[in-house]
Design brief:
It contains 5 helices and 5 strands; from the N terminus they run βββββααααα. By secondary structure, it is an alpha+beta fold. A hairpin with a 2-residue loop joins strand 2 and strand 3.
C-alpha cells in the first residue's frame, strides 16, 4: 500500500498492522509509506455477524487480508472466484465496471481498493435481495 493517504475524522479509528490507532480531536492526514502494510479503517469494517450476503462475503475476505488475518495469496483466489460469481448477477455496466476494478486491484494486491469497489455494490445487492423477497 505504498503511498496510501488516509484522511481521518476526529476520533476515527484505523487498524495498522494489527494495532488500533485513534485520531485525536481534529481532522488529520496520515501518509502510509510502508509497502504491504495492513491498513483497515474501522468505519469500513464488516463485523463477522454481518457477513450474510454474497457481496459482503467477498468484501469480508478482502478485509481479512487488510487486517492481517489471512495471507494475500490464500485470499486472492477466493476473492477472484467470488467476483466471478457476482458477475453472473450484476450484469449492468456500472456494476461490471466496479467488478473489473476490484479484480484488477486484487491482482495488483491492492485489497483496500478491491474492498472499496466491492462495497459500492452493497446498495445494489440490497435492492436485488429486496426485490427477490429475501
Amino acid at each position: 500500500m505504498s503511498g496510501l493517504v488516509l484522511k481521518l475524522a476526529p476520533r476515527e479509528r484505523v487498524l495498522v498492522n494489527g494495532a488500533v490507532i485513534e485520531n485525536g480531536d481534529k481532522r488529520s492526514r496520515l501518509a502510509i509509506l510502508t509497502p504491504n502494510a495492513h491498513i483497515l479503517r474501522l468505519r469500513d469494517a464488516i463485523h463477522p455477524e454481518e457477513v450474510n450476503t454474497p457481496v459482503r462475503r467477498v468484501c469480508y475476505i478482502a478485509q481479512l487480508v487488510l487486517s492481517g488475518d489471512v495471507a494475500s495469496g490464500e485470499a486472492r483466489q477466493q476473492i477472484i472466484r467470488g467476483i466471478e460469481q457476482l458477475s453472473q448477477v450484476f450484469t449492468d455496466h456500472d456494476s461490471r465496471t466496479q467488478l473489473n476494478t476490484a479484480t484488477e486491484a486484487v491482482l495488483d494486491e491492492q485489497f483496500y481498493q478491491a474492498m472499496k469497489s466491492l462495497r459500492s455494490l452493497l446498495p445494489r445487492e440490497a435492492r436485488l435481495l429486496a426485490a427477490a423477497g429475501q
